[in-house]
Amino acid sequence: MSEDAAFRTVIEPFRIHSVEPLRITTRAERSSRVRDAGYNLFQVRAEDVLIDLLTDSGTGAMSRDQWAAIQHGDESYAGSPSYFVFRDAVQELFPYAHVIPTHQGRAAERILFQVLGGPGRVVPSNTHFDTTRANVEFTGAEAVDLVIAEGRDPSADHPFKGNLDVAALRELIARRRADIPVVMMTITNNSGGGQPVSLANLREVSQVCRDAGIPLFLDACRFAENAFFVKIREPGMSDWTIPDIVRAFAALADGMTMSAKKDPMGNIGGWLALNDDDLAMQCRNLLILTEGFPTYGGLAGRDLEALAQGLKETVSEDYLRYRIRSTGYLADALVERGIPCLTPAGGHAVYLDAAALLPQIPPLEYPGQALAVALYELGGVRSCEIGSVMFGRQPDGTERPAALELVRLAIPRRTYTQSHIDYVIEVAERVKAVAPSLTGFRIVDEPPALRHFTARFEPIG
Ligand code: F0G
């Protein structure tokens, strides 16, 4: 082998600079904590969790250079230099005319859909994330998911399972053109398994939207991971740089909503960016009502500085190679051990297929909840149900099983080492061993919307 051949081991392209302790808990302690929490892992205290894979949102490790950037934060109410540093970093990748900071992604969604939504309207997406769907529905509009058929099949092998079904979009536009204020495209498709969208698919969707005169917006939380998948999987893209791929995505859309708690490496933050002057003005007016003045939008100047630096780091190919490989490492190990999960692995998370692992639990007894609770009780691993608890309740109050019963193991950025992940693999093996004896849950208390955050459960049997 040549001395210059690439090494098999993909290493973390950083070393640890500051550490946080993890508190080791006992099985008995965890059983009691989760019972007190109504078997809802969102209600468990973080210090009672050993490995927290609840989300990759805002839970990543900031870099030395981000912490240094925080010192440059200028807290002027209006026109802070930190806003312009932030705006320039966003426009470097997403050259939209208006960049409106918000405190996180859902604030951008609320503002956008407050302007564009309303009764009788319909908003298509490949798959709406839960807050996006909730913000669309809150205005009285309908949120429609049009992901390709492979994107709904946990084991289908397709390089871009986040793609939108263009024929279905055309058909919807033919029937409801006047009711569609915007088409959304979630990159990567979080609720569909963190699966990427191809540039070719976005190009087609963009053409359909432009022909119909409908704006296209990206929900771009994980744009860098999506771009890396495009680079390694899409024919003809391997020579493109990550920033060029991101700009190609941006150019096909008219705007974006963004949670900066994902790929931009922030602990908080988001933005709304768009080209349309009139829409931007309406959005800024709403922003001022609840988020703040348009040059800070609910963020501190120091947050804006940290995000600008995070945007530079997240498009690094060395970082993305490590990031995508470390998620793949977990998925490969689970598949090898016969633990059913969604394949190919997504960018930010591995999704366990609870319906396949727990066939004895019917969808409306929430197999995903049972699996998530078992991972916590057995090993202190916190995950997130993405199934009938999250999506089963319809706007009219009825219950319908979700398309998939998944449990997401989301990997915070630059936070856990390979031995943490090896431990998670061992916990999953132990859960698989007891899987046939696990039983479902019933909901004993729930709010009218976004129930997965606060609902209380009771084990059945
Ligand atoms: N869109 C997508 C695709 C998301 O994944 C999220 C958040 C949001 C919008 C909302 O952003 O949290 O900043 O308000 N996803 C987190 C998750 C919560 O765990 O997947 P936010």
Keywords:
globular; alpha/beta; Aspartate Aminotransferase, domain 1; 3-stranded antiparallel sheet; 2 domains; 461 residues; binds ligand F0G; single chain
Describe this structure in words.
The chain has 461 residues and is of the alpha/beta class. The chain has 2 domains: 27-56 and 316-459, Aspartate Aminotransferase, domain 1 (Alpha-Beta Complex), CATH 3.90.1150; 64-314, Aspartate Aminotransferase, domain 2 (3-Layer(aba) Sandwich). The protein is built from 16 helices and 14 strands. It has helices at residues 27-36, 64-70, 81-93, 105-116, 130-138, 166-176, 199-212, 223-233, 242-251, 277-290, 301-314, 317-336, 354-357, 367-379, 388-391, 418-434, and strands at residues 51-52, 98-102, 122-125, 142-145, 183-186, 216-219, 255-259, 270-274, 349-353, 381-382, 384-386, 406-410, 441-445, 456-459. The strands form 5 sheets. The chain has a 5-stranded mixed β-sheet, with helices on both faces. A 3-stranded antiparallel β-sheet has the order 9-12-11. Helix 6 (166-176) runs parallel beside helix 7 and helix 12 runs parallel beside helix 16. The longest helix is centred in the last third of the chain and has 20 residues, at 317-336. It is globular. Bound molecules: ligand F0G. Residues 55, 57, 104-106, 129, 131-132, 186, 190, 219, 221, 259, 261, 270 line the site of ligand F0G.
